[in-house]
Specification:
It holds the Pfam family LRR_6. By secondary structure, this protein is α/β, with parallel strands linked by helices. Helices cover 44% and strands 10% of the residues.
């Protein structure tokens, strides 16, 4: 659809009061298209699910969309995976999340949030008391970024599902997230997906400790199965699927 298509759909959404699910993925929307879509997102309070995945949004689009996400009162689920958000744009999107008090699910997977984007997400998780699902898989999040998100997770009470797969956060990053759960007795986390990394003794012991605190927690990760078999409690071992898809389809 491109820029002209974004302009036309934006004009329609400014008037439409019946559509609640809107799927616009794979339309080569770029930073120029974002400004038109932002007008609609800001004004329309009826659309509950918006999918803008597989487009060409960059950092300028992240800044524009982040501001209007903060003001939208209708969206419950926002998918914007497989775009080109890095640093500044990623941080702007995350700040919008922190200010939004209606959004339940956010998918920003397969972007390039890195440390700065992860830091903004961590701050957003401290402030947000509504979001239940967050998918930040494959966002180039290193140890430092994982620890920023862990700091937010330590204070957050409402997030239920967090997907951190395919990030080079190493054992230290995974341990940081688990320690954050240990320190948050009021956490709402039900499912935590960690990267497929080698499991050392510290991580295996942390997995056991967290499972004792939260016996209903679904903790999924790959790694060294021998260490896991020696641990006292069974932690579900999860091998990443070859094809991109829902983690529930993993074996």
């Amino acid at each position: 659809l491109g820029v002209e298509g974004a302009k036309a759909f934006s004009a329609m959404l400014l008037e439409n009061t019946t559509i609640v699910f809107f799927q616009l993925s794979g339309n080569e929307f770029d930073d120029h298209a974002a400004k038109y879509l932002a007008d609609a997102i800001k004004a329309n309070s009826k659309v509950e699910t918006l999918d803008l995945s597989y487009n060409m949004f960059g950092d300028k689009a992240g800044e524009v969309l982040g501001m209007v996400i903060a003001e939208n009162i209708g969206l419950r689920e926002f998918k914007i995976s497989w775009n080109h958000f890095h640093s500044q744009g990623a941080a702007a999107l995350a700040k919008g999340l922190g200010a939004n008090v209606f959004l339940k699910a956010l998918d920003v997977s397969y972007n390039g949030f890195g440390s700065s984007g992860a830091a903004a997400l961590g701050e957003a998780l401290k402030a947000n008391n509504v979001l239940e699902e967050l998918n930040v898989s494959n966002n180039r999040i290193l140890v430092k970024g994982a620890l920023h998100i862990a700091a937010g997770l330590k204070e957050n009470k409402t997030l239920k599902r967090l997907n951190m797969t395919r990030n080079p956060m190493q054992t230290e990053g995974c341990c940081g997230l688990l320690k954050a759960l240990q320190a948050n007795s009021g956490t709402g986390i039900e499912t935590l997906d960690l990267p497929d990394i080698p499991v050392n003794k510290e991580l295996a012991e942390l997995c056991d400790a967290v499972k004792i605190l939260f016996p209903n927690l679904l903790l999924r990760h790959g790694g060294n199965t021998n260490l896991q078999r020696k641990s006292q409690l069974k932690v579900e071992l999860w091998t990443q699927p070859k094809a991109v898809g829902d983690s529930q389809n993993a074996v």
